[in-house]
């Protein structure tokens, strides 16, 4: 089978060129820094419209609130003056920004379509996550882990490498919920040490949660089974031989060492086999969201042990106390499931401390590296780009699912021409933007456009009771002269107070532009993957609810099956 709805490379390239053209016109506004707003007269230099007109246009239930009409945003009338580069039409500017969003460009593959193509089955949400994670992280881990498991199953792999694993939430969940062997790699030793301890605690609660779930399900199933009539007879020998043959085949194929069978005193100690076997079959079906999925061979045998096939075994009771063939099979099945459960509860998560670069040799970090996939949940700056580079270069890595963040930490090849040109840069990655010498600039990449002062003084403002208190705290922290009297400080505040609407309007314009910068970065990564010959499928997927997790887009790719 093949993944559905691939975006053709040409379509991705067209979308990238459109986004680059729009962002290119808006770069003077993107690159302007709020801290220089008054000192460099940024409003007069960059915006021709009045501040109140800008605020009214952006606040109104207008261009940003209404659905985008066909062709809107691509109008011939310019939003910026060709000569002065000033913004002259706020309405067209807002429409163009919306037109160049990922949803309007039509470059994203719906998550539901990807899961359907991967034939992933949605699983019950784990309430236990909320005890260890906030709502945002719980949402991210649940959604991403389901997709990762579906990709792993599709590719037939059981090993996952979590790059920039941090506190290990995603890694722990992938190992416990989906029985995947996960290596969580983070550059911070405090993160990996903390992840070890956190995983130990989570594992303890996880087992207790599973146990309660199994007991609850078993009691419900037994109650249901007790109300069901039991057939009177069965051809024991035929069923016994079939079950034993299947069990022996499974034992040879999966190399499972069964426990020694110990004779019991008879069937009086056991529940009615019809009820018992039906319960086991129901438990296998009902607890897939709690335990690792059994192999297809185990499921095939357990399906034979259904209530329709097995009746009351008391008529076959052996007076000598020896086990009949059916009971032996039942014990074998119980042993198999016990071992499978213990396997699923074993520690399959290994936090490792290492700094990952584009040149990193994973074999030096992971000694038992095998066919695997790489994942990254909000990998910072260049780490997201390096994850994609490692994926394309290493034959063992069959798939990647990366959600990046911290775009302001990206290194740019064309930002500082004096820096070393042999370095591996975070942006751009694709050939088109490299050929154009494209550079966003750090100010354009900052998600929240804070002032230079705010970056230096940190959280001083939140602790300040007034503007005077804020200035004095800031001057002290920056080791500057704080001898100015309060009246001088307030005179400065009053001098610019009447221009607050300019500053507010200016920041709103930059907020409207911010998603377009993200579009450019994500399309750059997607087009890079489209350029690789060993990639079978690649796409952008809106993975999370943007209200809960603003950095919600995942870059996903799968290699050709023949790649080795």
TrEMBL record:
The organism's place on the tree of life at top rank: Eukaryota
Stored Pfam families: Methyltransf_32 (PF13679)
SUPFAM superfamilies per record: S-adenosyl-L-methionine-dependent methyltransferases (SSF53335)
InterPro entries to which the protein is assigned, alphabetical: Methyltranfer_dom, METTL25, SAM-dependent_MTases_sf
Name recorded for this polypeptide: Methyltransferase like 25
């Amino acid at each position: 089978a093949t993944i559905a709805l691939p975006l053709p490379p040409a379509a991705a390239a067209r979308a990238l060129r459109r986004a680059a053209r729009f962002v290119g016109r808006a770069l003077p506004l993107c690159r302007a820094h709020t801290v220089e707003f008054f000192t460099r007269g940024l409003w007069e230099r960059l915006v021709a419209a009045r501040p109140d007109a800008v605020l009214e246009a952006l606040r109104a239930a207008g261009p940003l609130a209404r659905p985008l009409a066909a062709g809107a945003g691509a109008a011939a009338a310019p939003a910026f003056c060709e000569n002065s580069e000033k913004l002259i039409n706020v309405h067209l500017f807002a429409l163009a920004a919306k037109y160049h969003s990922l949803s309007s460009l039509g470059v994203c593959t719906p998550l539901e379509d990807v899961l359907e193509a991967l034939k992933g089955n949605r699983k019950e949400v784990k309430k236990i996550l909320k005890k260890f994670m906030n709502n945002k992280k719980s949402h991210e881990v649940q959604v991403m882990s389901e997709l990762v498991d579906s990709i792993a199953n599709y590719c037939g792999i059981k090993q996952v490498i979590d790059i920039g694993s941090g506190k290990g939430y995603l890694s722990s969940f992938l190992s416990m919920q989906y029985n995947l062997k996960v290596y969580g790699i983070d550059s911070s030793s405090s993160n990996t040490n903390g992840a070890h301890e956190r995983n130990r605690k989570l594992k303890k609660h996880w087992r207790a949660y599973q146990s309660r779930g199994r007991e609850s399900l078993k009691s419900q199933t037994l109650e249901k089974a007790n109300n069901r009539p039991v057939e009177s007879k069965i051809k024991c020998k035929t069923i016994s031989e079939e079950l034993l043959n299947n069990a022996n085949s499974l034992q040879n194929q999966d190399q499972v060492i069964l426990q020694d069978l110990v004779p019991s005193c008879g069937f009086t100690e056991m529940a009615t086999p019809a009820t018992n076997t039906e319960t086991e079959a129901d438990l296998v079906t009902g607890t897939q969201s709690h335990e690792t999925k059994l192999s297809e061979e185990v499921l095939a045998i357990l399906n034979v042990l259904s209530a329709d096939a097995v009746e009351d075994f008391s008529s076959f009771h052996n007076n000598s106390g020896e086990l009949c063939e059916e009971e032996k099979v039942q014990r074998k099945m119980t042993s198999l499931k016990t071992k499978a459960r213990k396997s699923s509860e074993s520690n399959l998560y290994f936090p490792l401390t290492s700094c990952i670069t584009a040149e990193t040799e994973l074999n030096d970090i992971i000694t038992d590296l095998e066919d695997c996939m790489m994942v990254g949940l909000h990998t910072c700056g260049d780490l997201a780009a390096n994850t994609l580079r490692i994926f394309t270069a290493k034959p063992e890595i069959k798939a990647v699912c990366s959600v990046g963040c911290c775009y302001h930490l990206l290194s740019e090849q064309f930002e500082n021409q004096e820096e070393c040109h042999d370095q591996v840069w975070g942006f751009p990655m694709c050939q088109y933007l490299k050929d154009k010498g494209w550079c966003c600039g750090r100010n354009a990449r900052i998600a929240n456009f804070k002032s230079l002062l705010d970056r230096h003084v940190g959280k001083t403002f939140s602790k300040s009771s007034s503007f005077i208190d804020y200035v004095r705290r800031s001057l002290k922290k920056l080791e500057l002269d704080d001898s100015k009297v309060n009246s001088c400080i307030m005179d400065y505040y009053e001098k610019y107070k009447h221009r607050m609407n300019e500053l507010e309007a200016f920041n709103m314009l930059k907020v409207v532009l911010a998603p377009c910068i993200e579009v450019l970065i994500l399309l750059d990564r997607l087009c890079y993957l489209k350029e690789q010959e060993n990639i079978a499928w690649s796409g952008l997927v809106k993975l999370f609810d943007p209200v809960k997790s603003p950095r919600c887009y995942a870059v996903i790719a799968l290699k050709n099956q023949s790649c080795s």
